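Predict structure. Chain length: 266.
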Amino acid sequence: MPRDSELRREAIVQLATTTGLANVDELSEHFGVTASTIRRDLAQLERAGALARTYGGAMALVAHPEASLRQRVGEEFEAKQAIARWAARLIGAGETVLLDAGTTTGALAHELRHAPALTVVTTGMTALQELATADAVTVECLGGLLRPQSQGFIGPLAEAALERLTFDRVFLGADGVTAEDGICEADIRQTRLKELMARRSDRVYLLVHAAKIGRRPFHAWAPMPPKWTLVTDDSATDAELAPFRERGIDVVVADENGDDVSGSRG
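Prediction complete.
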């Protein structure tokens, strides 16, 4: 029979592979053992070649694979629709809004196809395709280098265009998000652009389904501004949302109708 320590180490490797990083303090609390015990576990796993040690934790040796936009389209479809419905109701006639690349922001673009007198600026092909035939919506693209995996534009051309614009609202997407570090992405050029996008409006919304909360699948990060709103679906737990609320971040939990049910969750 495997010992408790062996089972715990197997679980640590699985967590690091799933989330990208394993933090000593979080692992200590998760397994109900001391931080010293976790450090010994990590040291043994490193010697065995199962993990690589980092400051304060460890990381999986095998890079977390980045799913393509086509692969992500069908993931958490209903959750993305719920988030998009809530976000669409915020936007008033005559506003100018910025949509990030991604499938959840693409779902928001779908909801905006019949919006009156609206200007949508985007970095994503999904939003462009959704709004291509929306007669009442003025559509602008930041341009730049097209990144095939995300079907989004990045790089200095996109950044230069962004510096000349401001927005009533900015809607961002992410591969992962934590209250401490902000937005996680596979490419530092993505996080650089998202950081700049977040500076172009006082009203910044991060649209992510619950499975992305607390995830650290990659090592490129975009810090968020002091004031922003996390918008997710109603499968998110109070424990997952607590770190954001503790930092004063506004949290919206959208149900299937796009109604905010966060008030009933504390």
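Summary: Residues 4-60 form a domain with the Arc Repressor Mutant, subunit A fold (CATH 1.10.10.10).
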